[in-house]
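Lecture 7, part 2: worked example. A protein chain together with uracil.
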Amino acid sequence: MERLQKVIANAGVTSRRKAETLIQEGKVKVNGKVVRELGVKVAQTDRIEVEGIEITKEIHRYFLFYKPRAVVSAVTDDKGRKVVSDYFTDIEERLYPVGRLDYETSGLLLMTNDGEFANLLMHPKFKVEKRYIARLKGIPEKVRLRQLERGVVIDGKKTAPAKVKMRSFDKGKNKAIVEVIIHEGRNRQVRKMFEAIGYPVQKLSREGYAFLDLRGMNAGERRELSHHEVKQLKALAKFGQ
Ligand code: URA
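Predicted complex, written out as structure tokens:
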């Protein structure tokens, strides 16, 4: 059961504030009867009319998407590049990404049409862990990685503590693979963190988001989240992990 004004707003008819006004003006009917009080709760099965027109309730969808590199985390792109929405053209609901991965970065991206859910997860106080795998040019010493763990200054502000682990390195090729876990979501954060210690990222992938990962998936594939996974994410956002 949800509040009437919220259901009207979620259906895309108008804002929640305007919906409240419409209710108070007697322009909203539930199952054929005018409802003027705010806060009345309605069920999925209730028939709601706004100014004589029945609203169609938006069904919320939640997807885990494995974004390939060279795809923009947006619904459209003015430069005509491929966008994440191109992978969801068969889905009727208008989905948008929860946060962003930069153009060259591949990996786990959530897609939804639930604005409240997206806002909740993107709120800075929500400390969901995001796990990245970076391929670096050069092999950073332990002391450099510790520096990243403690925080480095990017764009004039120190990053929050991170977890950083050397996964492997190749002295012959002068390359290293490093895992980084952060809970902030600043613009190009991981790339900038490595730049700050002098080791540019050559390839970056987000492999984990909270308890979700990309196991069994290939770039460009998606799967719908289960009801339970959505509930868990909402709970994490509210109560922390
Ligand atoms: N850090 C980056 O550098 N890029 C991303 O897309 C995400 C985190």
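The first strand starts at residue 2 and ends at 3. The chain has three domains: 2-54, 62-125+212-239, 130-209. Keep this in mind for problem set question 3.
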